[in-house]
Design brief:
4 helices; 221 residues; eight-stranded antiparallel sheet; extended; 8 strands; single chain
């Protein structure tokens, strides 16, 4: 009898290993499939044209102008360049598909005289890649947005990362290659705070209504 029990236990153990191995294989296949899909989605959003190419596209559209800001951001599963410039009369903006180089939108409008315009000196500045690498020493997650503009008379790279609910922005002096500031915005905390403030506001309104009703009853008495 004991021998039969041992044989049954051994058979069950072998079956468990086989089933476990099969399950593990299926899980790995699912993970592999998901990974392939994620990779494909990442490939669809690529930056194939350089910053210089984007500026040249801007100049082709509007002629040589002072460049005010260069931004790259992910929008609807594609990266977009936004180049802004100005002259003595107008300000200009061009949106460019960072993958194909196609101009998606271009507009110009009268220069706002009250707005201070600062032109970027693009010589001897760190590249977007160099700025990202430096920013990664202070931020986690994936870089999703970059902008280069003048800030307090300095050319500044702003690199934005997304890590779950958190957004981290790292500001870098593009000439001295020094980190100036790191800001973190937790979207979950913001939502929780908004919900709490809304609840407190409703409670205050309810208490206010109760007090007014109580005052009316006291007057009637």
């Amino acid at each position: 009898m004991k021998t039969n029990i041992k044989r049954l236990s051994l058979a069950a153990a072998v079956l468990g290993l086989v089933m476990g191995g099969t399950s593990l294989t299926l899980i790995n296949q699912v993970h592999a499939s998901t990974g392939a899909q994620t990779t494909q989605q990442t490939k669809n959003a690529t930056i194939n044209i350089s910053q210089s190419d984007a500026i040249n596209k801007f100049n082709e559209k509007f002629g040589s102008k002072s460049i005010k800001e260069i931004e790259v951001k992910n929008k609807k599963d594609k990266y977009i360049y936004e180049v802004e410039g100005f002259d003595s009369e107008k300000e200009y903006k061009v949106k460019i598909d960072a993958n194909t180089g196609k101009i998606l939108k271009a507009k110009s409008e009268k220069l706002d005289d009250e707005k201070k315009q600062e032109a970027l000196d693009l010589s001897n500045l760190m590249s977007r890649g160099e700025a990202t690498k430096l920013a990664q020493t202070k931020a986690s997650g994936q870089a999703v947005k970059w902008s280069l503009e003048m800030d307090n008379n300095k050319p500044v790279w702003k690199v934005e990362f997304k890590d779950g609910n958190k957004e981290i922005e790292v500001k870098i002096d593009a000439k001295d290659q020094k980190i100036l500031k790191v800001e973190t915005d937790d979207k979950k905390d913001s939502k929780d705070k908004h919900a709490k403030d809304h609840s407190e506001s409703k409670n205050k309104d309810r208490d206010h209504d109760k007090n007014k009703k109580s005052e009316r009853n006291d007057t009637n008495d």
